[in-house]
Amino acid sequence: MQSWLRRKPLDMVTVHEEGRRLIPTLSWPHLVALGIGAIVGTGIYTLIGVGADKAGPAVLLSFVAAGIVCACAALAYAEMATMMPAAGSAYTYSYAALGETIAWVVGWSLILEYSLVVSTVAVGWSGYFVGFLQWVQQQTGWNVTLPAALAAGPHAGGILNLPAVVITFLVAGALIAGTRESATINAFLVVFKLIALGIFVAVALPAFNAENLHPFMPYGFSKALGPDGVERGVMAAAAIIFFAFYGFDAISTAAEETKNPGRDLSIGIVGSMIGCTIIYVLVALAAVGAMSYTVFAHSAEPLALIMRQLGHGTAALAIGIVAIIALPTVLLAFFYGQSRIFFVMSRDGLLPRGLSKVNQRTGTPVTITVFTAVLVAALAGVARLDEIAALANAGTLAAFTAVAACLLVLRKREPNRERKFRTPLAWVVCPLAIAGCAYLFWSLPTRTQLWFAAWNVFGLVVYVLYSRGRAVLAKQG
Q1: pTM of the predicted model, to two decimals?
Q2: What Pfam families does this protein's entry cite (predicted)?
Q3: pLDDT digit string, tens, across residues 257-302
């Protein structure tokens, strides 16, 4: 039993062999931009429509519920990331605190999370890009639209979502060029994204009509199956738009590449979470107040649609253009996190070791980045937005639960170890995070829960047959 729960010594978490060590190049402004870039994106630009379809105007409560759970998890991440400034996020923390088998399940769940998040964002970006091309054709008469077969996946009557595939490889190319370079571009684009949301709030909020909030909670609070076979309710929506809040965990994957992790990681994680919560509440309130949720619930570009319906075509165009330019910041942040999870699991021997080599010129793991690009591009080309977002949430909820548990375990096992950031009221915050994640997981669609279980059963088979015997810790005795 001990070999199944062997732990990586805390003092060895930040010790790495030559050629498999990531280079510290990031400071706290890069991390805050990485966090905001990851958090503010598809969730508010596209999934607000999906959430409104499930909860009606009470989607506002869904944002609050998801935000509370994420805030508790963010505080736990801040302590763990500053305590163990190494790449790998929840996987690395679990390896040191809970043991290898649990770490494998967490890492395998993170692979699911990041792969599907990148795919979801790519599909969301494609919706805005295709809408922009249609507008250009209407205004100019130029035939610039894509054939229907290449503008959407099979679920929408197409064959391949080509824009989603292309943007995935473009972001991969930026990451291969260098971490600091791509982080700087990301910070620049984040500013544009925040300006666009500011325009939306400034235009939509004056059109607020209280009548649009009635009935406020048409589908109830808890998850329930509607007559059309769709699971709805405030918490069913929260379980989906939870996707809109996480992203700060991508910051923790940058720990090894941060120049001053003890200070900068906590600033990046907590700062980005607070900023994004304020932004979300304002945008969601403006959206559901300006127009009946039934109008934009099924739109691939709900914010731009609301602007057009209010007669602000120029503002709609601006939001659409900025979404095209800035949504790739979400892609970049999560793609970055995905490649680092793969990288660390490879470095630990749980995945093929050849994947964890770092390019000496750029300081980036080129092989694993290309591998990740192929994987997520394949998903993005055929995936459906709401379904893959829900499945990505399942992986994230598992990771958040593990991080909160790791914090409590290490508070008991290592009470005197230095902590640059201490989570306040840890024995309240962490159980609340764990309970909240469990409830949100229960609120996910049943099919999503079954797919998540199947993914991890498959993962455990891979662990037993391949990874367990090849782990670096196994070879060390």
Answers
A1: 0.80
A2: AA_permease_2
A3: 888 888 888 888 888 887 787 888 788 889 888 888 888 887 767 8
- Domain residue ranges in the chain: 2-475
Q: What is the dihedral of CA 34, 37, 39, 41, to 10 degrees?
A: -160
Q: Structure tokens of 397?
A: 């909820």
The number of CA neighbours under 13 Å toward the Cβ of 215 is: 6
Distance in angstroms (rounded) separating the CA atoms of residues 370 and 96: 29
How many DSSP H helices and E strands does the chain contain? 22, 2
Token reading at 384 = 């459906």
Quote the DSSP letter at residue 24. P
User: How is domain 2-475 classified at the CATH fold level?
Assistant: Amino acid/polyamine transporter I (1.20.1740)
List of residues 6+ apart from 74 with CB closer than 8 A: 248, 269, 270, 273
Please give the structure tokens belonging to residue 383: 């995936």
Q: What is the dihedral of CA 197, 201, 207, 213, to 10 degrees?
A: 90
Strands (E), 111-247: 224-225, 231-232
Helices 446-462 & 100-140, crossing angle to 10 degrees?
130
pLDDT tens digit sequence for 26-72: 887 888 877 777 777 656 766 778 788 888 888 888 888 888 888 88
Give the count of alpha carbons within 13 A of 472, CB side only.
18
CA angle 446, 337, 154 (to 5 degrees): 50
Residue 93 tokens, joined: 């923390």
Q: What is the pLDDT of residue 386?
A: 61
Q: Which backbone phi and psi does 225 adopt, to 5 degrees? A: -85, 120
Residue 108: helix, strand or coil by DSSP? helix
89 sits in which H/E element = helix 89-97
Rg (CA), the chain: 21
